[in-house]
Amino acid sequence: MVAVAVERPGTLVLMENEPRALGADDVMVRVQRAGICGSDIHILHGTNPFAKYPRIIGHEFAGVVEAVGPQATGLAPGDRVVVDPVVSCGHCYACRVGRSNVCANLEVLGVHRDGGFRDRVVVPAANAVKLPPTLPVEVAALAEPFSIAANVLSRTGCSADDVVLVYGAGTVGLTVLQVAKLHGARVIVADLDANRLRRAEAFGADRVIHSTRESVPLAVAGENEGLGPSVVIDGAGVPALLAEACGLASPAGRIGLLGFSPAPCNVSQQEIVRKELSLHGSRLSRRLLPEVIRWLEQGRLRPAAMITHTFAAAEAKAAFSLIESEPGQVVKVHLAFD
What we know:
The chain is α/β, with parallel strands linked by helices. Helices cover 27% and strands 26% of the residues.
């Protein structure tokens, strides 16, 4: 059985792999489609602080249930599912208050545990979300990245009353854009790359800002009755943007951080207190896949246009090479395992 693994930082390999034994509460999934995420690239380069090697990567994947453990309920062989990669303990403080995505004992498939870039994978049945019959498997594999956007916008309380500024028009930014529009917000997207900004416009951005040609703070100063954006989302992962976001956000504004950099950033306490800003870290997704699947089924998002390239799993090295060599030409690259 084929698996795509990072043997050590810098070395991507195809290997034979047998899934672990099926536990009482587990299901075995035959993977059909999987998406490559920026965090997979980070693991390949050794910049993810949580990964241990060798590691079968992949946390955005969907497929068909082939076997069900004796105590697993709600699923049967033949069911199509998307897998939530967040495995939580269920009993720590974070889990008890509904924040399982930051469980004290968190394990993420493809990071802390071997993931879904393989023909077959055994996962807890609680992490397999059944798909409606009309949802294509390639669209289902996009539910996890959309759930990241859903989580940060839930954390920041996005609504139709908001003007949302999204830093970054990559995959993360485009999912945030679409989910914010779903909530009825006005959405502005800032990026360094003109091609990405054109893509953001095609996905419904109300306004785009080429940040090498104009100042983002000056460009958004007139928004929201001259108060500035009420929600700012860092989808670029650049620490210095936090200070800028605090300066341009409106009074009572909310800032959502999706970046994972350890680098420090100078932030003004005065600015945060003066405007009573709220800073929200957002990691993974808090069991939001079922809601995202409903949005996808209802046609409220534009997922298919996000898939720019699909490679056979055996061509994984070429897929990763394309992402790294032509970042402006790709949004989401999928691996096909069927």
